[in-house]
Write a structure and sequence with these properties.
The protein is about 50% helix and about 15% strand. The chain has about 280 residues and is α/β, with parallel strands linked by helices. It folds into 2 domains: about 80 residues, 434 Repressor (Amino-terminal Domain), CATH 1.10.260; about 190 residues, Endonuclease, Chain A, CATH 3.30.870.
Length: about 280
């Protein structure tokens, strides 16, 4: 969880505690009014649980300040704009999130990204994406709208061929070898990946095994122009649009790029990974 998100959640909890105290209630008293467990009140007030909009509306009523519901919900909206849980985003399946990706790509001239363990979605074949969505749906226990999500991901790739756009991605060599799909699917994916090298809208850098790095990339992220960074964690995405975080992630993109290889050198690494599959 990001420090900024947690700080904002603690501040929201402090505001709830302040309103409760102004009403002359202690934690046990407000819990009784709301019909909640005392532990839930404690978690909310100490920033250890994210309230729902309904929680905030009920709280404002319980402390006799229904006029505060708008402020509290505004604070919550600010949290959710930055920190988007997968549970909520994928409640209806993967398609909605893929459609959002299509829209963000259409609004962006240059996307820069780092991927450590997988091929970037913009470069994936339908089969590779299909296995990724199936595994993700099983892991997160979300609806399996796999084919619809695959079609949206492939449609997003139309942007790769639009004049004036630029897609600059750095991929750790390990991502070329990690098998999350059958070997023949991975072979086709690597051939697709190599085939994009040389396209005038695409720049692919590969960080070789054994490369000397100033700082190792710890997770994947994408930078949309200089307006937005999207970082995926195991339970949520962070959407960061403040100048400080954008500058931080630009450095996190620049530094591994110093050790990456491009062009024919990158293609050789991809070809080597393809040969290691030994499909004979």
């Amino acid at each position: 969880m990001s420090t900024d998100f947690q700080s904002a959640r603690v501040a929201l909890g402090a505001r709830l505690r302040e309103l409760r105290a102004e009403a002359g209630l202690d934690g046990k008293g407000v819990a009784e009014v709301l019909g909640w467990q005392r532990s839930k009140v404690s978690r909310l007030e100490n920033g250890k649980q994210t309230p729902s909009a309904a929680d905030l509306a009920a709280w404002s009523q319980a402390v006799g300040r229904p006029d505060m519901a708008g402020e509290l919900k505004g604070r919550l909206a600010g949290l959710e704009t930055q920190y988007r849980s997968w549970r909520r985003q994928l409640a209806g399946g993967h398609l909605a999130r893929q459609e959002l990706g299509v829209a963000e790509t259409a609004a962006t001239q240059m996307i820069r990204g780092v991927e450590v363990v997988r091929i970037p979605g913009l470069f994936q074949t339908a089969d590779y994406a299909r296995h990724a969505f199936r595994a993700n749906a099983e892991f997160r226990q979300t609806p399996r709208d796999v084919e619809e999500a695959v079609r949206a991901r492939i449609r997003r790739q139309d942007a790769l061929y639009e004049r004036g756009r630029l897609f600059r991605f750095i991929v750790w060599e390990g991502a070329l070898h990690i098998l999350t799909c059958p070997r023949d699917v991975m072979a086709a994916q690597l051939e697709r990946h190599a085939g994009l090298i040389g396209l005038d809208t695409v720049e692919i850098g590969i960080i070789p095994f054994g490369a000397q790095l100033r700082r190792a990339p710890t997770h994947g992220f994408w930078i949309y122009d200089q307006r937005l960074v999207i970082v995926e964690t195991i339970n949520a995405e962070m959407w960061l649009d403040d100048e400080e975080n954008i500058a931080l992630y630009e450095r996190a993109w620049d530094w591994p790029g110093e050790a990456a290889v491009y062009g024919q050198q990158a293609r050789r690494l991809i070809t080597r990974a393809r040969a290691s599959l030994d499909l004979t």
